[in-house]
Amino acid sequence: MDSNYNTNTGWLCLDFANTVDWHASAHPVESITNFTDLLEWSKQVGIVSTEVADSLIHKGQEKGKEAQTTLHKAKELREAMYQIFSNVTHQQPISTNDLNILNKAIATMLYHSRLTPHDGGFTWDWDDNTDKLNYILWPIVRSAVDLMTSKALQRVGQCADEQGCGWLFWDSSRNRSRRWCDMKDCGNRAKVRRFYKRSKG
User: Fold this and answer.
1) pTM to 2 decimals?
2) Are 48 and 133 in contact (CB under 8 A)?
3) I need a surface site. Which of 61, 135, 136, 158 has the fewest CB within 10 A?
4) Which residue stretches of the chain have pLDDT < 50?
5) So what's the pLDDT on residue 190?
6) Would you list the DSSP string of 29-73?
7) Residue 125 pairs with which residues in a beta bridge?
8) pLDDT for the residue numbered 192
9) Which residues of 83-118 are buried (b: 16+ CB within 10 A; e: fewer)?
10) Which CATH architecture has domain 12-200?
């Protein structure tokens, strides 16, 4: 799992896919409306430092078109990953278009990746192009590759809320029994609905 980032799910790619609330409903709520929002999220999860984020915000203001392109690619990548993980969870076919979007992002990520010595071994690192606006997407893509090519993929779940919460999570329960994003939230609402139906019945 991604241990070097401040994630809610344990996986950076799942956290990024969850940056839309009520994602599976007819009225999803976007939390990343501009390039600055994207950078703020990246700073919160630890992809970039405050200093790098401030620098990229300044570059984004200077290069407005490039910033908009990065934002568009980020959202396109997010939706592709969300649909892929959702389909995997429900054992549905994967869209060729979604997979193509992810594979293009993977190619870019790999182009900027390199191995560097670390603690007597090696670790992944990035080249010297971290001043590029799309740098913030590379760790997200790497996280998706790591998850999708491991047995951990079998533990990806999606909130079963009937109203369309759609939150993706990594199920750490022993028998993979988790159904909700949070028992205090969607899980509690489902519990109340079941109680109401039983009382009516």
Assistant:
1) 0.89
2) no
3) 61
4) 190-196
5) 45
6) EES--SHHHHHHHHHHHTSS-HHHHHHHHHHHHHSHHHHHHHHHH
7) 114
8) 46
9) bbbbebbeeeeeeeebeebbeebbebbeebeeeeee
10) Orthogonal Bundle (1.10)
